[in-house]
Amino acid sequence: MSSKQMTSxxxxxxxxxxxxxxxxxELIEQAAHLECRKLTDFCVTALTDAARRTIAKHETLxxxxxxxxxxxxxxxxxxxxxxxxxxxxxxxxxxxxx
Length: 98
Fold this sequence. Notes:
2 domains, toxin-antitoxin system, mainly alpha, Ribbon_hlx_hlx, 64% helix, TacA_1-like, single chain, DUF1778 domain-containing protein
């Protein structure tokens, strides 16, 4: 295994550029300094964490209280299988090879 493959951080080849006002830059620099981290490393980590939280928030199903109750009621008392559902299950079994 090469030394590049052993590092915990992949090689950074892409760039992301944006402008900040002075106060925001000073705030970010202070935070990076307090964590004893390089400014770039601090920013990349913060942006990555924020991106992951945003994606997770949008991928998470949020149910209203009524929807949650309906969902759990269907789990506890599932509806009877009707003809349409039986056909769908049969078609699914036909298509999926176990």
